[in-house]
Amino acid sequence: MNALKKTIAHVAVPVPLRRIFDYQVSPSIDPTSLKIGARVLVPFGTRKLIGVLLSVDTQTLLSDVRLKSIIELIDTEPLISPAVFKLCQWAADYYHYPLGEVLIQTLPPALRKEKPYDKSIEANTSIQSAQQVRLEIQLTEGQHQAIETISQELHHFQSFLLNGVTGSGKTEVYLRLIEKVIAAGKQALVLVPEIGLTPQTIARFQQRFTVPVAVWHSNLNESERLQTWHLAKQGIAKIVIGTRSAVFMDCPDLGIIIIDEEHDLSFKQQDHFRYSARDLAVTRAKFENFPIVLGSATVSLESLYNTKTKKFNLLVLPERAGDAIHPHYHLVDIRNKPLEQGLSKVLLDRMRQHLEQDNQVLIFLNRRGYAPTLLCHYCGWMAKCPRCNINMTLHLTQARLHCHHCDAIQYVPKVCPQCQHEKLQHIGVGTERLEKTLIEQFPDVPVFRIDRDTTRRKYAMEKILAKVQEGRRQILVGTQMVAKGHHFPNVTLVGVVNADAGFFSADFRAVERTGQLLIQVAGRAGRAEKRGEVLIQTHYPDHPLLVHLTQYGYDSFAKLLLHERKDSEMPPYVHLALMHAESLHEERQNEFLMAIKALAEKVAIDSVMILGPIPSPMPKRKNYFRSQLLFQSSHRASLQRFLTHLMLKVETLNEIKAVKWTLDIDPLEMF
Fold first, then answer.
1. Same fold: 141-317 with 328-370+427-565
2. Distant-in-sequence, close-in-space partners of 247: CB < 8 Å, separation ≥ 6
3. pTM above threshold 0.85
4. I want to staple 99 with a disulfide (CB 3.0 to 4.6 A). Which of 12, 229, 289, 346 is the partner?
5. What sign has the CA pseudo-torsion 61, 66, 67, 71?
């Protein structure tokens, strides 16, 4: 047969190579059965891999010797719809990531194997609410205006930033909009930032709607994820609620995307395919021509900037819903004051007063574990992670030392490994130690801890939240998990153990995040008819940014930070890409990045700055030595053009064999 007459399938294979692979279609496969977006089983080296079919023609540059054949056509219909396919292609180009790896991760794990897709999967009726409960909720003027404005744009693309103070009723706005979308025969996709938030959100939606509500997050098992994907793809689930990766959910009748807590860092993938679900959701809405609503009480500076450039339409909910009023802030000066495991007398006294009135108290400390440092008082030895060279956190309940960066675990030594003395001290306070102290201080009051350690098991978070909702007086202590949009109507006092660290970080985004976190956790107080109070302990009560935040609110604080970013030429006024490299052999990663820099200087575009390489802020992790190279430009298109040229050359470097490397577009964390 003439080579030009062969039927050639162009396949995206999930391997870390930025190219498409050609395979011959064997005579046993009917060419008319090949559908774009279907899975095929192909040989790849010594392995067999699942690929996704991109196109079919008779053209290939491969010789007959090198041209291999498709082993099996797994699907006779496309598993990836044209809409999701287009989004994946855009994402692969923008994030400079292999298309095969982007496409395969849009599928549930069960379909990343040779398993055929069975359309007859039974729907789990438990995802459907038994009856609709439409409470007569009196809308505020802001809510009414937001609903009316967005409703006028339901039939075409528009981006809305819903900036509503904590407790302003953003969820009610979402629900009213979804009602309209469902009435028009469409589906709604709701993205939430944390797994712990999902059960609460689902319950709210199930109480409101009679249509099936499906959920998607990483804690679901394989069959549960397959079922959610099936229900969404078949159009059965009219509402899909999910975390980050749900942005790729195949919904054939999608009519709106809602992103709750749009500022949250967890919408950005921090390893492998480093995409922003928020940014991809906006792109998807644009491609499919429907509106997107991004909501937050503490909007990101990027989104605030987008309202200035008219990319987003700003809608404001300035007042709390119902009779709730804004909490009152107090900065507690703890300089030279005695502390009971981090708690000042002022905070303890106010806790007693609120608890005596049968209210609930929330104590916030963004550090889990018992103590961040285990120290020998005699010789100064500290328990450090041998793989990361940083202090290991003591978890006393499990009697172990835990590295929160690489998950290494060690038993707690009874004596100092260095000098054999027994006087080992616990330095610092984590949520576990704080919980113990609060139980001692308030023996008659239930204390519940909410962090990754106490909510690791399935349904653990739901059980804790159910106890909180009972309304009895109790104390909650937790990390940032408690600040993620939870509704605690009986919490009247929020205590922040230490607000200082974020104001002195080398990370230029740290101040923004600290402000967001403080306002979010403070927003758990006084969400019903009871007045809320927020006590923030600090060694710097006169810090101008902290004072500005508590006196003038987050919006004014954010505008101030945005002005500073403009003056210092930082995002969102410039665009960044971070090349990160790591190696088991010290200096190999630097050699690789120096080779990258040499290539970069050859393809340099005037508007692109090349900074580095320098050691990463965490220079060693999991035994890997780490460095990074930063690319910066005031023009996004110039940066993308530069990176496209650069990435064509990267895989040709000899130095690439000795390192692991990633490219992070629009990085939110500088490692």
1. yes
2. 189, 191, 257, 277, 280, 281, 284
3. yes
4. 12
5. negative
